[in-house]
Amino acid sequence: RAHAIPNVMHRTDTVDLLRAEAASCRRCPLWRPATQIIFGEGPPNADIMVVGEQPGNQEDKTGCVFVGPAGQVFDRALIAAGIDRSQLYVTNAVKHFKFELRGKQRIHARPNVTEIDACRWWIDQERALVRPKLIIAMGATAARSLLEHPVRIADCRGSAIALPDGTPCWITVHPSALLRLPDGVDMEAEFDRYVTDLRLAVRSLD
Ligand code: URA
């Protein structure tokens, strides 16, 4: 057809539509106390999709993914690994900030399986539209969302697991884990392992 819409344009439009639709998500109760939904960001035809856990306090306020303390570790690791963040589609397994109030402070609370399952609706659609060549799951929540069963990060980092549609999924730690390492654990060594995981995953596309 002479007036067919180019594929890339169509896909761009569609991720934007999905984002607009997600703004009124009521699939689980997390929308109610949150400020806004934080949807995925990045090129809608990215080769690589990175999946985190859920937005934090600063993401909830700004509306952007990975801009708070975990985002700063993520950014540092990407620079160390030689990866350009603007080429990545970055999203979360759960798209509203879950927190507990302590006084006026909003303290991060880990999403449960029901919330992860409810939000899989969005990540499945992001995957279908972006069609990444590989996915990097950062942390247990992201891995649980993608694999649909629990895993220990230590058992599966460093190599790819094929998702049911064949997409290779590389699992690594969540950057926030590097901010709360137990005493005695070498932060720089753990950071280097994280960088190595990211670099290995991305290089597997070469
Ligand atoms: N942690 C995440 O998993 N995602 C964010 O966007 C921010 C912090």
From TrEMBL:
It comes from the Bacteria. Signal peptide: none annotated. Residues 39-199 form the Uracil-DNA glycosylase-like domain. Belongs to the uracil-DNA glycosylase (UDG) superfamily. Type 4 (UDGa) family. This is Type-4 uracil-DNA glycosylase. It comes from Neokomagataea tanensis.
